[in-house]
Amino acid sequence: MSKEHVKIxxxxxxxxxxxKKFINTExxxxxxxxxxxxxxxxxxxxSFVSHxxxxxxxxxxxxxxxxVLTNSKSKLIAIVANERGANxxxxxxxxxxxxxxxxxxxTFQKRNANSTIDEAVDRVKHIKDICDxxxxxxxxxxxxxxxxxxxxxxxxxxVEHWVGTLAELGIKTFMLSDTVGVADPQNIRFLFSKxxxxxxxxxxxxxxHTAPHNWRIKIDAAFENGCRRFDTTIKGYGGCPMxxxxxxxxxxxxxxxxxxxPEQLGEDFSIDAFEDCLRExxxxxxxx
Length: 288
Fold this sequence. Notes:
The protein is built from twelve helices and ten strands. By secondary structure, it is an alpha/beta fold. It has an eight-stranded parallel beta sheet with strand order 7-6-5-4-3-2-1-9.
């Protein structure tokens, strides 16, 4: 296996957002502060979205102000769904990146963000302007990037079209998102082998959902075809609350830690700090 460096992005926001019982704000702060000591490339820590839709994230503004970033190189990512959320997130100096979920499925775009795809393009343009003015990076998550269960038109060519179209706005980082767990090694392999050479100026990563038995073949397919950026959650907690399949969780961080060697994870990555987070996760997610 290549020893080329990989970027691991821990996603506590994705792990927490679908949990109905509200997690105490102080517990969130303590947990994310532990994650900041691990040496992740970035942490997807919270979101500025409707409190009615995702009540678990209603305290994101309180959380960010209590995060200790002094000795951490990890970037903070906040998810937004519209201009209002982008303005809120961009007002925090601590936040480095804003993430926007852009679905190539019309049905899921309406379900997830209450907009059409055309309206989502307009939102991306406005959010990119906000990011530029506030010196933030915009990351686009290509939702339903590997197929969908809603009967909408899908093909790798559609994904390629939207990556190319949105890249023209100056966006440099795209995460292909397996929102409902339909990705298999064949379509993962095909998409990364096609997109990464075609868009060599972009960073194209993987946000994969998986069942416990098939995570490795998905990582093999992505890594062997050039993917070097991976979203994960400790113990695979979470998944998209707007999707249908409650059995499909996120890619477990500990699986990737064991898959890659220490040189690939980077000299700043601390296994001891990661194991401390594993223990803390048992307190944050006791019934998952």
